[in-house]
Amino acid sequence: MHVMMRQARKAANKEQYKEACDLYQQVLDSDAMKDDLDVQLRLAWCHENLGHVDEACGLYQSVIKKYTDEGELGAAEALQKSVDALLESAVVVQEDVEVKEEVVALSKEQLMEALQDMGEDIELSDGDMLCDAGDLPDTLWLLKLGTLTVHMPDYTEDEPDKLRAKEGEFILVGELGVFTDQRRSAAVYAEGLCRLCAIPAKCIRDCDDVAFQCAMERLLRKHWVDPVLSQHTIFERVNEVDRLNLSRSLDVVELEPGQCLIEADEEHNGAYLLQMGCLFFLHKADSPADDELDDESGNLLTSVVPGDMIHMGGLLHGYKSPYRVVAATPVRLLHLSREAFELFALRRPWIIKAVLSYSHRPVHLQVMRPNDDYLWKSDRYIELRKNVLD
Question: Would you call 115 exposed, middle or buried from its count of C-beta atoms within 10 A (0-12, 13-18, 19+)?
Fold first, then answer.
C-alpha cells in the first residue's frame, strides 16, 4: 500500500492525473484505507485537475460529511466553500466556453513546443561548458539528449550532480536563474554528446501570448515555488499535493525601487515569498547580525533575496509589523493572504502554532530563508508525449 501511495504521489507531481486517480482509487478501495480522508482529498484533487467535477465534488462532499460528524465544523465550512466555487466555475465554463478558452494556459506539451520555436538547437561535445557560476541568467535550456554535470563552487569535495535526459522527457536547465533573475550558481559541463534547445530569457519575458505566460507561471509554481516552500521550516512538513496547491494560490505583487511594502507598526495582511529583486528589511534591534547595516536613520537593514519569506506574522490577526519593508530594486513577490492561509490551516492546527512561534522571534531573525540546498531540490524533468520530441 505504501508503494502504491508513493507511485500515486509521484504521478500527481508529474501532472499525470489519470494515473494518479487510478492508483489513489486502488488505495481507497482497500479495507485499511477506505475511510482515509487524506487519500479521498488527494483523489478529489486529481479528479478536479482532470475536469471531472462531479467525481471531485462527490468525494469532497463525503469528506465534508465526515468533518461534520466529527464536529470539525470550521473545516467542513471551508471545504464547502471550495466545492461551491468549483461548481460555480464549472457552470461559467459551460455557459461561456469561448471566453474561457482564451485564457486557458498552454498544455505542458504545447509550452515545450512554443519554447522550442523561440530557441535554437545546440550541441555540446564532451567537456564543453554550458554555463559558469556567476554568469548572467539570460538563457533557459531544454536538455533533449545526453548528460550534464553540475559543479557547485562551494561543494568541491562532493560528487557533481548529473542531469540525464531520457527518451520521452526534457530536462529544464538554467530555469532557476530565469525564474529569479539571479546569476548562475553552478558550472555545467557536457558529459559526452549533448543536444539542447537554448531559449533566450528575453524572448520568454517579451512574449505577449497570455496562454503562454499562464503556462510559464504554472511551470514557475511547480518547479520553483513548491521546491522553495519545501525547504522552509514551516512548510516542509506539509504533503506535496497540498503544498503545490498552496503555491498555486499565491498572488503576484510587483513593486518599483523605493516603494514601501509594509510600514512599521502596521497590521498588514499576509506573508510574502520574494521571487525577483531585493527588499530592504529595516528595524530596530539591540545588536545587529553579521549581514546587517545601519541606514541613515539608525535602523538596522537586512537584505531579502529570492527564496526568502517575510512577514509570517501577517498570517495571524492582530500582528503589527515591528519592521519596515521597502523595495531596493524592481521586485516580484508572491503573496500568501491571511484568508488563503486560514483555509489551509483548518486541517493542520499545528501550523498556526509554528507561525506564532516564528513571529515571536527576535526581529532580525524573522526573515525566513530556505535551506542552502533548495536549488537542487527542484524537479527539472518534463515528461512529454512522443509527438513533441519528433
Answer: buried
